[in-house]
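Run folding on both entries below.
>entry_1
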Amino acid sequence: MLDISELPTEPQSEDWGFVFAGRNTVTSLRGQPGLPWRLSEVAEHWGVSFSDAIPVGRWEDRGAWVFSVPEDSINQTQQISGNLYGLLGRVEDSLFHAHGRAYQLLYWRDTHRHCGRCGSLTRAIEDGRAVLCDSCSLRVYPRVSPCVIVLVNKGDKLLLAAAAGFQKRFYSTLAGFMEPGETCEEAVIREVREEVGIEVGNIRYYASQPWPFPSQVMLGFFAEWKSGELKLDPEEIEDADWFDATAMPPTPPIASISGKLISHFMERLPT
């Protein structure tokens, strides 16, 4: 499991390195899928400087860092480059979340090279935990965007929806970003109303999951149908319906918070 309570301060050759080419994570074709590299291997394969490393935490009692490499630098006979989502469910949750944190920090640093207030260059401070603009003293820490994700039921039936614009069609729970000033429960009510036109109640928190696409945290809830008929927002939802356990459509992997919500609900249905 990744320990983020103490960040490494000086890269060592036997430390771990998470490598990304653009949005894709890069791992070795040999060994355990998704396993990070040793820093000595990162230097050997890509010639990167350890000074370019961004601290991630500690993985298996060694420092863990993240690097960005050119997208055209991948050796297809030795390395595999793929979307981070492809690791979901293929590796242990702790390893997926370590990759996710590494990518979020890389994305955050890449999008905060310049100050959002005055446009000057920023520099890393506090062992990489923040960036600082020396021109106007603005200090910025990594941020995550909270989202609610909710499984709505109507008796024994589940409300599942296919999002508009997704190439790989499956049916998932409803989700959306929270707005400033909202409680989680208010966000659940608003998102369901906006996306499928119904009202819900009896909202219960279930669990959360960091979601590095690119920097969300998903807050999972259950809710019950209260009133209304399905009326879909075509810009957000391609299709939605009430399903029972005997006729389920393709759904997200169990490793996702949506998959966990669905599984948890179905396990508690009477047999």
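>entry_2
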Amino acid sequence: MRRLVAALLGAIFCLGVASAAPTDTDDGYISGRGQGTPPTRSVGTPQGKLMAKRAAMVDLRRDLLEHVSELRVESRTNVGDLMKGGAMRVSIEGVIAEVEVTDGAYDGKVYTLEGRVAMKDLRRALLPAVPSLQAWPRPDVPDGAYRGLVVDARKLDVTPSVVLRIRSASGKAVYGPEFVDRASFVERGMCRFDDGIPKNTRRLSAVPRLVGTAEAAEPEGPFLLIRASGLYGDGTILVGDREAAAVERLAPLARVDGNVVVLVRTSALGK
């Protein structure tokens, strides 16, 4: 790990590429790009190409480290904050060291590499920061229960994050890491953020001012659709007591599996 840090800080022939802060999106990866050039005396030689590729890899890892550091774990905490502790830094840098290279090209002067790290590997590294996660048995699913939950928070200033918390108007916990199976958190995360109900989702009915239902054309559905009514200062989403009761009664499997979609403003996704 010390070698990785030294390489990230000490690369000479690197060109940086900036991009928007990442979110725990449903594509499952955080991507980066790195570029490197050989020393002038080595341009046009096989050794120069190899040196440019090595420099591009250093730059790719630096780029990924920058992006991953900006990833929000909770509303007020990002990965960079957690990396101030030695153990978490080692874990995150270990994930970045194993970057998957997805593309590479050399034009004779500049070597460009593109690569990505899997969100599930990052979430595994983040497990010590979410101690309330535990192994949960799959609950019995009553008739009429929903396998997924959609929370419409598009009227609120929600910041996408790895950890999602929802409470009722009376202060009762409705959703959070304490409800999610540890293995599900690693594999799929607690939720995904979108700015609209996916195209492959079909609305079936609605209960006035309370709860609607949506059925997805995929195994994770059908979804229970509720509306968020407010936002706490720490980023926790507020829902009404009746909505909270509906989630507890009708969507126990959605909570354990982390099969939750939060609808947010398009601007929150960096689009």
